[in-house]
Amino acid sequence: MPLTLRTPFVIALLLVLSQGVAFANALDHDPLPLVATIQRPLLEVDANTSADAAGELTTTEEVDIWARIRNGFAIPDLENPLVENHLNWYTSRPDYIQRTTLRASHYLFHVVQELEKRNMPTELALLPFIESAFNPQALSSAKAVGMWQFMPATGADFNLRQSTFKDDRRDVLASTEAALSYLERLYRQFGDWQLALAAYNWGEGSVQRAINKNRAAGLPIDFNSLSPLMPPETRNYYPKLQAVKNIIATPALFGLTLPRVDNEPYFVAIGKTRDIDIKIAAQLAELSLEEFQALNPQFNRAIITGNATSQILLPHANASKFKENLAKWGRSLTSWTAHTVTNARERIDTIASRFNTTPQVIREINNIPPNMRLRAGSTILVPKAEHAPEKDIAADLVERGQMSIEPDVPNFRRLFVKVGSKDNLLSISRRHHVSVAQIKTWNKLNSDKLSNGQTLQIQVPLPLARNKSAPLVKRNVSRPVVRKQVVPVKGKAPAKPLISAKKAPIKAY
């Protein structure tokens, strides 16, 4: 009986030893094909297999997105006193780290995947930590927008379209592609990732001038050597990223625990060829409005415009729910349509009356502040008639429609005119290019009779009020200074090089 138990063991041992000899011989003669054979299944597991299924082949840590990021670190570490300052700030705020990394978990897999396709350092996946705290709806005081904080001109240079209905600078997919393309270009220009990142923040022209200045003085041109020439924001920019990189590399060393993020896609893209209200889309996907907008923040209005390239992002589990519920919906998908203001004097209350709604609804749905009015050429959202045909907003309006506003100041200047001995209502009305009825309304006159020396209020249209020949007897108020405020619009890409500074800071952190 002992012989029968040991015999299989001996046979198995001999088989293992023979395979070990074959393994050693293969390494001696042709190691590269063998390494490729071993690594390929591991890469497939990392990208496509859940942690539970992969447990037999690799450790849990190796299929976590944080480990994947660590494995791709490729930028030399920066030795700089500012790194320690930012490390102290971050590590003393574990709640901030927790909130930001949880928010990042929705987007990290996609960003890391795109970086690896381009053979770029995976530290760059942490850059939105510095730019926007991974908030794709972030807006800086300088109008930089989105997770990667693109200014309007820089965004336009990288094909990030900006219209009334959509701002691709907030689009998770489009802005990530643009940011990585921009960073690639900066790296090709400077040949150094630390300087490329400084240029991403400060502008390539500014970094190049600093390099030229140090070269002329015979000084080094690395990040630390150029730091004295940088503004404070840029001087701290890469040290912040280095601090975050240090935390992600060894969170336990700083007493922190990162939320687990599986190495698999969080969302999928679904094509959308018809207009649909955002509220309805979120309802069909069985998501809260906040959850839906976190993945689809590029839509500026209450509607998702549909075309051949339009798409929405949904978590895996909700994508199938969306398709099922959409097939059973059977009602109109949108309650809004577009209207273009063609008349410079077309007021919001007039538009509201035309579309059977209230000025408040028009203002709220288009984000028009109080005491502001629309300028001619503006495209806005208005309610769709109840029985209107199912017709999508025209593609050219979706791509190029803009909205601009200005202070809603009076279109006239109020004057006070003293009646002379030979004056009457008709002569005064002709002199000031207004009607007799208007003068009577403004002054609450019940008859046409005037008294010598009587003072009348006249509301003179502004173009006429600038005519010096008009006999202005007395002015009640001076003409207000009008400072036009314009909603950011799509602009032409600037001439190369790009704008000297990419943006202004949104916050210290």
Major pleated sheet: 3 strands, antiparallel
Helical amount among residues, as a percent range?
Answer: 40-55%
Number of strands: 11
**Segments where pLDDT lies below 50 for 5+ residues?**
1-61, 464-509
Which shape, going by the Cα principal axes?
globular
Please give the CATH class of the largest domain: Mainly Alpha
Q: Which architecture of the largest domain would the CATH scheme give at its second level?
A: Orthogonal Bundle
**By helix and strand content, what is the structural category?**
mainly alpha
Cα-to-Cα separation, first versus last residue: 73 Å
Give me the side-by-side strand order of the main sheet: 10-9-11
Any idea of the CATH topology of the largest domain? Lysozyme
Q: What is the overall number of helices? A: 23
Q: How many distinct folded domains? A: 4
Q: Rounded to an integer, what's the Rg over CA atoms?
A: 33 Å
Mean pLDDT, to the nearest integer, reads 82
Measured by DSSP, the beta-strand proportion falls in 5-15%
Task: Explain how this protein is built.
With 509 residues, the protein is mainly alpha-helical. It folds into 4 domains: 13-48; 63-332 and 494-509, Lysozyme (Orthogonal Bundle), CATH 1.10.530; 336-407, no CATH class; 412-475, LysM domain (Membrane-bound Lytic Murein Transglycosylase D, Chain A). The chain is 46% helix and 9% strand. The protein has 23 helices and 11 strands. Helix 11 packs across helix 14 and helix 15 crosses helix 16.
